[in-house]
Amino acid sequence: LGTELREDYVDFPLRSATDTQTAVQGKTDVTAYFAEINVPLFGGAQRRPLLQQLSVSGSHRQEDYGAGGESRNPRAGVAWRPASWLLVRGSYGEGFKVPTLQQRTQPIVVSNSTTTPVASNLDPLRGNTVNPVHPVTRGGKADLRPETSENTTFGLVAEVPPLKGLSLSFD
After folding, report:
1. Can you say how many angstroms the Cα of residue 106 is from the centroid of all Cα atoms in its chain?
2. How far apart are CA 128 and CA 120, in angstroms?
């Protein structure tokens, strides 16, 4: 069990005395709560053929990003050892990531970039020419939305009995 409190902030300085649009400050207070559990179901004196060890695990993390949103991220896993030298494992989890303050509030900058003509960017339909100057825009985007993910993993870990300390993992 645990909790986490943190403050994320950015402060982009003014580029000029009249720059009130691109010099943006930002601050986010984040509160998180989390718990994790691992429960061995079989092992030790309870071993049976094809059931040397069995355990399940789970975790949950909840975060509040204020205006950035809220996330609830569960994870569950199982580990089964059918033989002393083989472990079969699997898990499922969900993820959530809010855009960083820099990604949302960084000042917009538009500049020109030059491209040096090389074989990979020449246009044969235009006499092998290339536009050497093109505009480049960089900076934050205030309306970025959070990213979410789901992941599932399965794997095997085989310990090689003749070579003590050597294990092979396949995920």
Report:
1. 21
2. 10
